[in-house]
Design goal:
alpha/beta, Dihydrodipicolinate Reductase, domain 2, 17 helices, 36% helix, binds nicotinamide-adenine-dinucleotide
Length: 512
């Protein structure tokens, strides 16, 4: 990050003041109390029994987010399905932890997905499987009369994503996509402040997700890669049958992110979250174009997914978003730096927001002179910049809300703030609201990230993949976002999916 840790911490505190309650309360504000998501996103406690759900895919996201963080008062799991023995056992343990030993054992395991879909007790199917399976599983569930909440990225390609939207429309069922930033109070606050002009006119956002897998594991001495986990011994039992599920090998089933047919690379897994946020920061707009480059510049194995990607999106009115995702440096972590004419909003790691104000040149001169004079007296370094920033942050009056919704927000937030320390990433809230929409159809609410929003996110991520793999600039078409249109971004040419280093030549092509 281009600012000192000290300044970062100071500006984070400034923003917390701007948000009208201190950082500690701000951190507390979004979790634990069921009402907190409701306060921000306009729903209430669920009337009636929790929505009954079945989940397919009890791997990392299934267990750690969709089960562990599911809201019992809103959604109750009654069934699950997976195909790997290790993950079937893991799912059982997750339900035991969530509901207790006895109730957790009552969550029914289905050996076949079709049988779970035939269970009339199930209202919702939650999908947390590898990317390439989403569309098939979702369309089958919608046709079986279930609502579907599907993890991001919505689908492996835009044709499939459009089929999901049409299937939901035809079935008259809800389709929600798990881009949890739509339910993050942290992002809600950031968006609200940007919308209110706190940082002025935004022309540039720098977004990134940087990890360092070059650091070796202290125990094994091997380079780290969460995308290439070890093969659990229990899963060897299904090695000979994985082809029945469409996988070439057990390795491909478990390391699906590494291969083009089963995953969508860094843009699908990481970039899609952040481009979604950027388009909201810029006023819910679609990009005009994207250009990109990337390569397999670190790992040396059979993977097809690039380990470094870089792209530049142009938005209407000349706004630009640059995005990078790398595997060889983790200084910055992940987040978005939103740069406006009056200030900069920095949202980092789904945990911190900080605000930096731009300086008035005349005031800067005066303060620099004053600071230099003071430094002369004390012998220290002048610190005019920081003083000015402190002065230029405008604080609201006590109780004034800067968050999304209602008039009573200040009081509600303060009440909610009393009970926890951790900022919710939005998993609980997205499931709460999805269940609320099902139980309260008369209120006309719909998931904040429904099929059409998820389709737009998929268009951005997958069009970026086309640009990155082709080392090209491509222009977006409105028809890509239309579920009724067959138009899609060009598929990635087969010869571009081969491992290679950073391309050397840029080409400019237009996409018809
Ligand atoms: N919202 C987020 O922040 C977030 C974070 C991580 C992952 N995800 C998404 O969640 C999804 C799952 O990711 P993950 O990290 O849990 O992967 P994972 O490999 O840990 O889990 C996938 C699970 O699906 C099962 N599975 C595979 N094919 C199946 C099939 N045909 N039928 C039934 N089960 C099948 C696997 O056995 C495994 O248990 C992906 O789409 C990923 O992008 C979202």
């Amino acid at each position: 990050m281009a600012v000192s840790r000290e300044r970062f911490e100071r500006e984070k505190r400034n923003l917390s003041r701007l948000l009208s309650f201190n950082r500690r309360d701000f951190m507390r504000a979004s979790v634990a109390v069921p009402a907190m998501g409701a306060v921000y996103f306009g729903y209430r406690e669920l009337k009636g029994s929790p929505v009954r759900a079945g989940i397919v895919g009890t791997g990392n996201e299934g267990c750690q987010a969709m089960i562990d963080q599911s809201p019992p008062g809103y959604l109750e799991y009654v069934a699950y399905h997976d195909i790997r023995p290790s993950q079937i056992a893991r799912g059982r343990r997750a339900f035991q932890t969530l509901y207790g030993q006895t109730a957790g054992n009552k969550v029914k395991f289905y050996d076949k997905y079709s049988e779970m879909l035939a269970d009339p007790n199930i209202e919702v199917i939650v999908i947390a499987t590898p990317l390439w399976t989403h569309a098939k599983l979702a369309v089958e569930a919608l046709k079986a009369g279930k609502h579907v909440f599907c993890e991001k990225l919505m689908a492996h390609n835009i044709t499939d994503a459009k089929a999901m939207v049409r299937a939901a429309d035809n079935a008259g069922k809800l389709l929600g996509i798990g881009h949890q930033r739509h339910y993050s109070t942290l992002y809600a606050d950031a968006v609200k402040n940007i919308d209110q002009g706190v940082i002025g006119e935004v022309k540039y956002i720098r977004a990134f997700w940087h990890r360092n897998n070059a650091l070796t594991d202290p125990v094994t001495g091997e380079i780290r890669d969460s995308w290439k986990p070890a093969i659990p011994a229990d899963d060897e039992a299904i090695r000979s049958v994985v082809k029945e599920y469409g996988y070439d090998s057990l390795e491909q089933l478990i390391r699906w992110r590494l291969y083009d047919r089963t995953g969508g690379g860094l843009m699908a897994e990481l970039g899609s979250h952040q481009l979604d946020a950027c388009s909201i920061f810029l006023g819910h707009v679609h990009p005009v174009s994207v250009s990109g480059m990337g390569g397999i510049n670190f790992y040396k194995d059979d993977r097809e997914a690039y380990d470094h990607v870089y792209c530049t999106f142009e938005f209407p009115s000349g706004q630009v978003v640059t995005y990078s995702s790398i595997n060889t440096n983790q200084l910055e972590g992940y987040g978005e730096v939103v740069m406006g004419t009056r200030g900069t909003m920095m949202v980092l790691n789904e945990r911190d927001v900080s605000l930096y104000t731009e300086l008035d040149p005349k005031k800067r001169e005066r303060d620099q002179a004053k600071a230099a004079a003071e430094a002369g007296k004390s012998g220290g370094e002048p610190d005019a910049t920081n003083k000015q920033i402190k002065e230029t942050v405008k604080l609201p009056k006590p109780g004034e809300a800067t968050m999304y919704s209602a008039a009573s927000l200040g009081a509600a937030a303060a009440a909610a703030a009393k009970s926890s320390e951790v900022v919710s990433r939005g998993y609980k809230e997205e499931l709460e609201h999805f269940a609320y929409c099902i139980r309260h159809p008369g209120e006309g609410q719909k998931p904040r990230c429904d099929g059409r929003v998820g389709l737009a996110d998929a268009v951005m991520a997958l069009a970026a993949n086309v640009a990155i793999k082709g080392n090209t600039r491509i222009e977006f078409k409105d028809s890509w976002y239309d579920p009724a249109s067959p138009d899609v971004p060009d598929p990635v040419p087969a010869d571009k999916s081969l491992a290679r280093s950073v391309p050397v030549r840029r080409r400019r092509v237009s996409v018809s």
